[in-house]
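Example 148, ligand coenzyme A.
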Amino acid sequence: MTIVELGTEAADAAVDLWTASDLTRPWNDPYGDFARAVAGPSSAVLGLYDGETLVGTAMVGVDGHRGWVYYLAAHPARRGEGIGLALVAAVERWVEERGMPKIQLMVRRTNTAVVGFYAALGYAEQDCVVLGRRFDGSSGGAVAAEPS
Ligand SMILES: CC(C)(COP(=O)(O)OP(=O)(O)OC[C@H]1O[C@@H](n2cnc3c(N)ncnc32)[C@H](O)[C@@H]1OP(=O)(O)O)[C@@H](O)C(=O)NCCC(=O)NCCS
């Protein structure tokens, strides 16, 4: 198994993997995400291949302050084989090599299953609230405000 930085030709395989792993959402364009990440100087999509088959991905980027990970996925039929672990090690290396002191990621509140995976790797909940705003004005999965 080898881990490489994916190029544009791997977009279909990566998006298929993200869809099968329930990581896509209607308000996100996974092809746009993929294209921007592989084109940018401070981001990449790492892919783990078993022969010719893409069986794992992780999108990684640095913003000058820290590294971020998105779209970590192991093919549903290949879970529990160490693919996730190998990809986290690779993205951590990628971020450290660029001089960042820290790596972090967001987990959707509904994705409770994956928290144990990260916790076992030393990832701890951070004392912050994530705020965002979409430029198209849609809620894009934002948590509804509490009624006053
Ligand atoms: C998270 C994910 C990438 C893990 O990939 P994987 O290849 O199955 O993980 P590994 O085989 O490398 O597992 C490494 C270790 O974590 C453990 N582990 C895996 N998933 C776990 C989970 N959900 N909770 C707790 N431990 C978990 C494994 O048991 C293994 O431990 P061990 O070495 O002591 O046996 C995979 O479950 C996945 O693609 N999930 C769906 C997509 C997703 O939610 N991505 C994260 C978005 S934030």
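Summary: Residues 21, 23, 72-74, 79-85, 105, 107, 111, 113-114, 116-117, 120 surround coenzyme A (CB under 6 Å).
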